[in-house]
Design goal:
Elements: E1 4-10, E2 24-29, E3 32-38, H1 42-49, E4 56-60, H2 66-69, H3 72-81, E5 88-92, H4 96-107, E6 115-119, E7 127-130, E8 134-140, E9 148-154, E10 160-161, H5 163-168, H6 176-180, E11 185-186, E12 192-193, H7 195-198, E13 199-200, E14 207-211, E15 229-233, H8 241-246, H9 252-262, E16 266-270, H10 280-287, E17 293-295, E18 301-303
Parallel strand pairs: 3-4, 4-5, 5-6, 14-15, 15-16, 16-17
Antiparallel strand pairs: 1-2, 1-18, 2-3, 7-8, 8-9, 9-14, 10-13, 11-12
Amino acid sequence: MESFKVHILGCGSALPTLRHNPSSQLIEIREKFFMVDCGEGTQIQLRRSRTHFSRISAVFISHLHGDHCFGLIGMISTFGMLGRTAPLHIYATAEFKPMLDAQMEMFCRGLEFEVIFHPVSTTLHQTVYEDKSLTVETIPLDHRIACCGYLFREKGTLPHIRRDMIDFYHIPISQINNIKNGADWTTNDGEVIVNSRLTYPAAAPRSYAYCSDTRYIPTLYKLVKGATLLYHEATYTTEYARHAKQYYHSTAAQAAQVAHDAQVGRLVLGHYSARFDDETVLLNEAKAIFENTILSNEGLVIDVKE
């Protein structure tokens, strides 16, 4: 099975602590690397993850609070010092572009690579990136400013060939693609070998939903339905539900409710309030509603699998 992993680079909230870095993740899918959010210190975390900087092709920014984007200009500058030549694609709300342009004019003149900006709408659920193996969709969220999450979804692949059956019926290589695309095979004696005997199904496509800062949205589960892995912010416990509502964040219980309603495979919590010295209280609260829940932590690498 092709690689599909989530590398946690930072899972803290806005107030700096010695335990957690601001939000950032690296999505590794089929040998492609994408970044989601880029808080302060992200490039140091990249070093620790042993990921080569040049492999990151795009950065998706959820919203324009500093703990989600202050690290971007520093990382772009470092890319320049390392001699990057491949284009870097940035996905963010349209109001970010003039700020990014001003920062690049001040700090990143003479880059040998192009930074290509793609404005995204935080109010629409739409595909903003697509290649032959995956799509990335926006997930509208409810925060103090325009904010969206991102859904990384593998495209389905063709069935696998049963080599023993191909050999047994002496099927020529020239017919393999036809069979993968659903064709039966007719032998020289006129016997029809149905496609299901010649192939076996490919693994089901996997998906990862990243839900950044947001109030609890009762209908959010519809957009992340059946995701293999869901990351949902869990800034507070239910004890601080009033704070969550006031500051447009979620509790661990609310994150778990989204996971439960969406019937996802696994839930990952993050964006912890600095008030918690031990996030086990968040984990326990979530597991009471959705058992298959884990805590994110810097350096954690999560396999996206059924």
